Amino acid sequence: MTRLSLADLADEKPVRVSVELSARLHRELVAYATALNGGEAKNAPAPERLIPPMIERFIATDRSYSKARRVAAPG
Question: How far apart are CA 45 and CA 64, in angstroms?
């Protein structure tokens, strides 16, 4: 496998990504948003606003991923 020589990309500009969710997962996100809002559906965050922090949290707490990154890191 070819090893790519890319430095960290400093561009922090948001990137729009479109994903398709199952109806069940969408309902779960709506329920989660409602729970975050103290059980009130009114003024609860939109489900799509929950996805980025959930993914960030998942990646930050995935021990296997952290270990693989340490092993793969040069130097």
Answer: 31
Per-domain boundaries in the chain: 23-72
Cα torsion 59, 65, 66, 70: sign: negative
Average pLDDT for runs of 10 along the chain of length 75? 50 86 96 90 91 89 87 75
Name the residue among 57, 31, 59 with its Cα closest to residue 45.
31
User: pTM to 2 decimals?
Assistant: 0.70
Burial (CB count within 10 angstroms: exposed 0-12, middle 13-18, buried 19+), residue 9: exposed
Residues 37 and 43 sit within 8 Å (Cβ to Cβ): yes
